[in-house]
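Internal tracking record. Fields below are filled automatically when a chain is submitted to the structure queue. Please do not edit lines marked as system-generated. If the sequence contains nonstandard residues, flag them in the REMARKS field before resubmitting.
Queue: standard
Priority: normal
Entity type: single polypeptide chain
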Amino acid sequence: MSRFSLRQLEYFVAVAEAGTLSEAAARLRVSQPGLSQSLTDLERALGVQLAVRRKAHGITLTPSGAQVLRHARDLLRRAQDLESAASGGGALSGVLSLGCYVTLAPTVLPPLLQEFSALHPDLTVEFTEDTQDVLQRRLLVGELDLAILYDMQVRPEMTRVVIGSARPHILLPADHRLAGQPAVSLVDLADEPMVLLDAPPSSQNTLSIFERFGVSPDVRYRPTTFELTRALVGRGMGYALLVQRPVNDRTYEGNPVVVKEITEPIEPSHVLVAWPKTMRLNRRAEAFVEFCLGSST
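SYSTEM-GENERATED OUTPUT FOLLOWS
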């Protein structure tokens, strides 16, 4: 018989995520002394120290605490699955924690969230946008159930399922000298200023494409967001190589931009749903993966 409770695990996860007992107690709406005692009881039950408590510096997880945190999150998700199944009807409920690469989010997330939520109205999808390196770290420590990524620099520890693809293109200001051409060559742009989207792994992938065809781009600007990249191009400050293709052909400022195919043979970039190989998907995550696969056909 287990000597600890799901409530103790829930409190421990809250403390680890908040970083302080006071913040966790406020989020959980419980007393700080009671929360501290729950953490002490859990440590006693497991026989390990989970965290170092410092009044001025909050909570720092021990190596054992970091390991227990991953398992605690998994157990709590499975407990939600059990509760959902026991409630009858098989309807999905609880929370699905989803990550999405920052440049994919504006075009990929809205339709997926809207349609998936319509199928499962009792399920809450909490999502976060970030770079792929950050999202993969969060997957591995159990902070996320799934992440939507490009098939670029995906860690070998990840299971991946392809749900779509898109071919890179060149974005030009509407008055550019090549704007009237049906397609452009990377060679023709070699001497022009480039706006390089610098959100890992986008920048590395873009530069590797140019290197593959023997072109050294003149990188002038390194914005970290998709829309700032488009805005700089719209002002005539350079061109960009991008993958996502918004329907709108104007920037936030209203400046027109044009999409041009690339004459060099460049493979499409695949869009994935990924999760750690060591993690067994819960019902909510399984349903989302199945939905994404159905939407991609």
